[in-house]
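> call design_seq(struct)
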């Protein structure tokens, strides 16, 4: 039997990992510039954490979670999203006592049993950040600005920010009543799942992928924006104003409710035409009740999460990766004595921070030079018996093919000087 990777998972091979590292470095640099600190949570949590926060009627909880019983018959779930685990950790570790506002980011693997396709995997990665402790629109605006900065820095220009407010829980209650009254007469026209949604969790109707359901909504669903109360409206207007101040374009989409139950007020998504059918680069919003719903003190919060695979797909489309930084220096040796000298020299170079590579197959000098070329080495150190007899090693500049003799004594320091010249 040949083992295969599980459907919907991916190997990130050595030849592509530098692209991930490049993107991850820019993401954490920008997030840290905005004073976010990284948080890392376990791969699995109690199942109830997700059913209570994301919501039992959502696709994630009802269809997509990897849930299992452990030996103690406890129901556990591989995390399908990170906001709930971060908030669980915030409450459990009393992070509110460390600072009045908690700003954390993550870069992590998640699991959802979805139908795999381009940009949609069963194990995928997200970067994201959460700002916990502020109810004000500055917090929402910062969250959006941070991801915007990250995409811009990476070279993505083609993107659209869709923005909505789904109101506070109070104002939404009125809206949901009106929505139900407007849609009830059309119950039979909806798909079977939506007929249930209409009874159980009506806002989830907006998540339906079926065009026929969406067109009924287009025709008969009132806009939630007309039911916002004064403070919701003030929050939304102020957020829009802040985004305009920092030149972030957006379109208001009153149907954007996002497929998770915890949102209040702001919801947003950034899509890009660089992606295929799965075009959401990221999504997020405000969730002012999640901390208390999970057993903490009432604490407002807002956050965003972004798909890493989708980001990499978009950057591939743009050809936006700098070339891989290959081994800058290769040590080729011929014969036992030379191998020992080369091995020691390489150890010294690496200790001094010079990345280098050597031959591990005892190949001919010609084969080693070919290998150095393939690895993109800028410099090759050549050591053979005749060099040792002359008390030197040869340093070859691969760019202009010039060669210099370097005395074997303290060769590493002299090589470092020569290559940095
Ligand atoms: P989400 O919209 O479920 O939100 O996921 C955010 C992003 O993760 C999506 O926009 C997409 O780029 C990526 N993503 C989601 N599912 C997959 C998948 N199966 N394969 C590849 N990429 C995927 C959340 O997860 C919320 N926790 C966001 C949030 C943070 N809200 C507040 N704070």
């Amino acid at each position: 039997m040949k083992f295969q990777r599980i459907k919907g998972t991916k190997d990130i091979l050595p030849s592509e990992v530098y692209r991930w590292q490049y993107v991850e470095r820019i993401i954490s640099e920008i997030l840290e510039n905005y004073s976010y600190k990284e948080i890392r949570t376990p791969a699995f949590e109690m199942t109830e954490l997700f059913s209570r926060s994301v919501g039992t009627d959502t696709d994630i909880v009802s269809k997509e979670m990897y849930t299992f019983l452990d030996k103690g018959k406890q129901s556990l779930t591989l995390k399908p999203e990170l906001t709930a685990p971060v908030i669980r950790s915030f409450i459990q570790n009393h992070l509110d006592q460390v600072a009045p506002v908690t700003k954390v980011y993550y870069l992590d693997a998640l699991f959802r049993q979805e139908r795999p396709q381009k940009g949609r995997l069963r194990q995928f990665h997200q970067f994201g950040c959460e700002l916990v402790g502020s109810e004000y629109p500055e917090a929402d605006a910062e969250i959006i600005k941070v991801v915007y900065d990250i995409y811009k820095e990476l070279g993505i220009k083609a993107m659209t920010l869709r923005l909505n407010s789904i109101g506070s829980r109070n104002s939404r209650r009125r809206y949901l009543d009106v929505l139900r009254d407007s849609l009830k007469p059309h119950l039979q026209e909806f798909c079977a799942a939506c007929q249930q949604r209409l009874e159980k969790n009506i806002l989830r109707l907006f998540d339906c992928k079926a065009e026929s359901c969406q067109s009924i909504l287009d025709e008969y669903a009132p806009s939630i924006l007309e039911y916002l109360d004064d403070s919701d409206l003030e929050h939304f207007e102020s957020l829009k104003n802040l985004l305009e101040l920092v030149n972030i374009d957006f379109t208001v989409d009153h149907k954007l409710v996002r497929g998770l139950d915890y949102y209040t007020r702001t919801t947003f998504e950034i899509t890009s035409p660089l992606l295929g059918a799965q075009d959401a680069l990221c999504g997020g919003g405000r969730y002012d009740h999640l901390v208390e719903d999970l057993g903490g003190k009432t604490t407002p919060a807002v956050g965003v999460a972004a798909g890493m695979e989708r980001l990499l797909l978009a950057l591939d489309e743009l050809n936006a990766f700098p070339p891989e930084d290959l081994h800058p220096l290769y040590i080729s040796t011929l014969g036992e004595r030379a191998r020992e000298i080369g091995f020691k020299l390489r150890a010294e170079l690496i200790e001094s921070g010079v990345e280098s590579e050597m031959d591990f197959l005892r190949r001919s000098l010609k084969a080693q030079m070919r290998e150095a070329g393939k690895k993109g080495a800028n410099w090759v150190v050549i050591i053979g018996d005749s060099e040792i007899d002359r008390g030197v090693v040869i340093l070859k500049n691969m760019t202009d093919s010039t060669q210099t003799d370097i005395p074997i004594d303290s060769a590493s320091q002299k090589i470092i000087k020569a290559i940095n010249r």
